[in-house]
Amino acid sequence: MTAATASTPYLIRRLWREHVRHYRGRIALIILATLVMSGATALYPVLIDWAFTMFARKDPRILYQVPVLVLVVTSIKGVSMYAQAVLTQDMVLLIIRRLQTAMFAHLTTATLARVEREAPAQLAARFTTDATVIREAMTRAVNAVADAATVVGLVVTMITIDWKLSLIAALIYPLAVIPVQRIGKRMRRASGGMQEQIGQAAAMLNESFAQARTVRAYGLEARERERADKTFAQLYQALLRMTRVRARLDPMLEVLAGLAVAGVIGLEGWRNATGGAGVGNFMGFVSALLIAARPLRALGTMNAALQEGLAGLARVFAVVDEPPSIADAPGAAPLPPGPGEVVFEHVAFSYPDGRPGLKDLSFRAEPGSMLALVGSSGAGKSTALALLPRLYVPDAGRILIDGADISRVTLRSLRAAIAYVSQEALLFDDTISANIRLGRPEATEDEIAAAAEAAACGFVHDMPEGLATRVGVNGQRLSGGQRQRVAIARAILRNPRILLLDEATSALDTESEALVQTALARLRQGRTTIVVAHRLSTVRDADQIVVMADGRAVETGTHEALLARNGAFARLVRAQALAA
After folding, report:
1. More confidently predicted of 524 and 216
2. Is residue 558, in this structure, part of any structural domain at all?
3. FRET label pair with 401: which of 121, 243, 450, 574, CA 20 to 30 Å apart?
């Protein structure tokens, strides 16, 4: 049974076992506050019954006893209500935090293919919209305990006042059970659809705003408005379905409450006409019945809210339960020390959607050398690079670093030996210093400054706050060349034995490229470097060039040797020269 199709008892038991049971002390305090609050509520009809009896007897004690008791009871209820609300929200928020932490921890270690399967906004929706409905459901569930205790207290009060009148409520209110259950099931289905639509709407908005320049440059405003209208219409329909299902409960419960009150009034009117009970008993009982209507209605609608929350909980557990396809093998050992030799042996790889990536790829990068992977788009160059830090797992063949099969070493030690600089140097919304420090978190400020200097980050001296300057979301406050040099500084600080460069200069202008190339030259010294190059002029100095086509290595050699061979590499060079 998967989390997505799990039953209500399974989800509740799992929530208790993995999260709720850790807060037993808070639960005990919540129960105590709830019982005090419910007990105080159940005393209201007794006070009303007593007050009307005193009125009928013209008892002078009504001038001081009843007001004082009302103040005492309401004060007790007020304090207990506050304690119960705060304690409940505190516990619920702590549980939500645990769920969010567990889901985020899983996604940070999940495969790249898993994370890329959904738009970032859709993943973010699991932490926001799902968390909101789960929090609402848990709060309602805790409050349902208070409502149930209140109803029990009021039932005891009603039976004490007049057990015959109590039979009317006992016969009418159970009628609500069947429709409440049916509506709850529909609510769970509708909630799942609504949350999916919210995630899709967030993804569309995120994509549209991220592409604001493209939209305006190509005059796509009307297209985007049409796309947004369609998305919002689907979200509207999902929300409307939810509203229609949810709206059925309150009117039904209101009618049942009206039937109960009408029945009580009718019966008591008949009894009074034939010399039955006095007005005190009647007022006390009706008061208890009316006070009970709110918690009874809350209990009736609680199932719908609970089903909404369970739908969100199932989505959260579905993420947490996904088995990691890339993890340390049993008995995995740290990557042994070495000079950084990299060997691909007959490596094959296909993407999860079936697209071929690599086919029988083999090559060897000598320790301390520079190896370039070149070829047309889609040849598999970046895919080969992604296999080295095990962002993906090959379908066949093996990859060795200093003689060790990377599938049999720990991920932590493997990735600690590698630094990766991509074409898009996306930075975190933090300071330049903090972004460089990601290469080695324990580095000192002097080491960070030295790495920045080695990466030609001289631009920081022109900034008012220097290395403490915040770079903005995705580093948008820096130019492309500046972001790239910060990424290189991060790699320099890491001091890896293997350096992976994925078209690290292809998107830069000539001046920025010259600065970045200078920084890369420093970074490459003394370590094995594997470069994916689009501009073939940048790989003239490579010790070895591997020409790729359709996921295979079709040629291998130095720049001069490959040109002399007049094969695939020479054709690429000529084509690029003509394009220039």
Report:
1. 524
2. no
3. 450
- Across the range 67-76, mean pLDDT stands at 84
Question: The domain spanning residue 178 has which CATH number?
Answer: 1.20.1560.10
Determine the Cα–Cα distance for residues 517 and 506; give it in Å rounded to an integer.
11
Query: How many CB atoms within 10 Å of residue 347?
Result: 24
Regarding predicted confidence, which is higher, 243 or 373? 373
Cα separation, 151 vs 42, in Å, equals 8
What mean pLDDT comes out for the span 526-550?
A: 86
429 lies in some domain: no
Mean pLDDT computed over 438-451 = 90
Burial pattern 545-578, b for ≥16 Cβ within 10 A else e, equals: bbbbbebbbebbbebeebeeeeebbeebbeeeee
Nearest to 391 by CA among 440, 352, 423: 352
In this structure, are strands 418-422 and 498-502 parallel, antiparallel, or unpaired?
parallel
Domain extent at residue 288: 3-320
Segment 90-95 shows an average pLDDT of 89
Q: Which two tokens stand for residue 111?
A: 């495969």
Length of the chain, please?
A: 580
Distance CA 559, CA 60 (A): 111
Looking at residue 43, its amino acid is L
Q: What is the number of structural domains in the chain?
A: 1
CA distance 355 to 380: 11
Summarised one tens digit per residue, pLDDT across range 179-209 is 656 665 666 566 666 667 777 777 777 777 7
pLDDT digits (tens, 9 = 90+) for 21-62: 899 999 999 989 988 888 888 777 777 777 767 766 677 776
Classify residue 427: in a domain, yes or no.
no
Cα 563 to Cα 287, 506, 574, distances in angstroms: 97, 22, 10
pTM greater than 0.70: no
| H or E segment to which residue 224 belongs | helix 221-247
Q: Is 25 part of a structural domain of the chain?
A: yes
Mean pLDDT of 516-543: 80
Three-state secondary structure string covering 128-149: HHHHHHHHHHHHHHHHHHHHHH
For residue 210, the Cα-to-chain-centroid distance in whole angstroms is: 20
**What are the Cα distances from residue 156, in Å, to 45, 46, 150, 152, 285?**
11, 11, 10, 6, 11
Is 180:300 a contact under the CB 8 Å cutoff? yes
Contact 539, 533 (CB under 8 A): yes
Q: What is the DSSP string of 482-525?
A: HHHHHHHHHHHHH--SEEEEESTTTTS-HHHHHHHHHHHHHHHT
pLDDT band at 410 (very low <50, low <70, confident <90, very high): very high
Please give the residue that has the higher pLDDT: either 211 or 222: 222
Cβ neighbours of residue 282 closer than 8 Å, sequence gap 6 or more? 162, 268, 272
Q: Alpha-carbon distance 557 to 566, whole Å?
A: 12
Query: What type of residue sits at position 423?
Result: Q
- The encoded tokens of residue 193 equal 């659809």
DSSP letter at 324 equals P
- The predicted model gives 553-573 an average pLDDT of 89
Q: How far is CA 338 from CA 364, 389, 527, 556, in A?
A: 15, 16, 11, 25
